[in-house]
Amino acid sequence: xxxxxxxxxxxxxxxxxxxxxxxxxxxxxxxxxxxxxxxxxxxxxxxxxxxxxxxxxxxxxxxxxxxxxxxxxxxxxxxxxxxxxxxxxxxxxxxxxxxxxxxxxxxxxxxxxxxxxxxxxxxxxxxxxxxxxxxxxxxxxxxxxxxxxxxxxxxxxxxxxxxxxxxxxxxxxxxxxxxxxxxxxxxxxxxxxxxxxxxxxxxxxxxxxxxxxxxxxxxxxxxxxxxxxxxxxxxxxxxxxxxxxxxxxxxxxxxxxxxxxxxxxxxxxxxxxxxxxxxxxxxxxxxxxxxxxxxxxxxxxxxxxxxxxxxxxxxxxxxxxxxxxxxxxxx
Length: 331
Ligand code: KG4
Ligand code: ZN
What we know:
Helices cover 40% and strands 20% of the residues. With 331 residues, it is of the alpha/beta class. 5'-O-[(R)-(carboxyoxy)(hydroxy)phosphoryl]adenosine binds next to helix 5 and helix 6.
């Protein structure tokens, strides 16, 4: 089954073709992130205006890349939330029109669940039960999946998401946007032994699977107040901040995996592209029997392929005219 996956919940516009939930035939991603750079965060109106321009060219490009034509597509899949309302409307209405005009069934996909399913692309034999960590710009959540349609939310952030913390701290440090890759780059220049500053590891000792990252961001703001931000100092803070976020994410995820005695841990969302998070999660998982999956780095951030993969396994068919975007959709 070939699924056309469309994603437009935030500042990316992506169209992909995925066969049987696992084989990537095409994945075209157009990002407006450079347009938001000077604002240090996403401006919803700018994102939506750009998406109107690029969604049809992305569709055409994706078909070209996949070698498919209209008749090869079995199903259209769309992420209908959570996200920015203007951006969501563009993707949802485009998917509805394609589904109606071409006479293809439509599947509605939750964007957050899509991030989890990015792991299925190119992978074999992901076993249930599993714990999924979704770490994106808008969300930080832990879920327990006993099967494809059996998802239980375990906990999430009480304030900022991990990605938001990366973006805000990058801004405080005078680094670019999006902040995650910038902090990762700055941190790479530092080795352990040269650092003598320590940031808090938020709510690590508390029970439960909730997170909190805004205090960490404030700790960075306090640290740099009235200080000259030279290169080495910025790199040290980036290194320590990245360590603090990754340690908390890894400890909570492993704790959840132990508590629910799962076979597998899967991680998804933009922050799952982070090499430190990957290395630390791998190191800790190697001490136990969990199988660990991260998506291909290109599939960590928003993309249409993960929407097509999730649609294949979840099969939430919907009549096109009944589908509405849901900016606050959750697990
Ligand atoms: O999943 P995503 O593309 O969009 C949302 O659904 O929000 O995630 C975007 C977030 C941004 O906050 C960005 O800074 C972060 O993912 N991110 C990273 C890295 N690449 C992207 N964070 C840490 N390290 C990275 N390499
Ligand atoms: Zn996302």
